Amino acid sequence: MDKKTISFLKDKKALKEQGLFIVDTEKILKEALGAGIEIERFFYSDDEIPRGFSVPHNLAEKSKYSDISRFASVKTHSGFLALCRAPEKPLKDFKSAKRIVLLDGIQDPSNIGAIIRSGAAFGFDNYLFINGCAGVFSEKAVRASAGAVFKVNTRSIDIKEAAALAAEFKFIATDVENGTDIKNADIGGKSVIVFGSEGKGVSKEIKELAASRIKINYPGNVESLNVAAAAAVIFFEFSSR
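The chain above was modelled as a monomer; its predicted structure follows.
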């Protein structure tokens, strides 16, 4: 592994911009490959590529264990790194869905993974990201999703694409201050359910696209629910109607 490669693998922003992510465990790699994810490069430290993985020799490179350790998510790792291509569905493929989830500026990858895990459990298979969300295929997001990120459709969009989508779908934004209790809200029809960032909530530009706003009423004396916990409750409410 040369210095240029090490520098590139360290640059999380560059990896995200180029649609790449790192996998360093056999379980997650098997799930990724099973979902049709493509390997761009494969680095391994043993004498041969780990069994069970069919990697073309032109993509494989034997590397020092210490170099692989720089990027491994755990101290005792499997001795390999797979640089994979993140799938991204074209926006037109989302338009046949009944419901879409839009994550707006969510920075914590564990929350993104947990939201997708809960959503997938309740039949939500389409996820869009806007305003600088954390990488959906980052190690923390993949782990928190229990591999569900590989089983759903994902795409990053901009505000123009969101506005065009609002012409065909009803945007329903979560709003802890001004939302209608979800138990009483009209959540029927083709909709985009929007969850905002942990600190700021749904952005102003997305709120302006929203046809309605919802919240969860609860008896306990807490300021708010974690966004992933709130999403699980809302997914349940949507799926039960």
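The chain has two domains: 3-85, 91-239.
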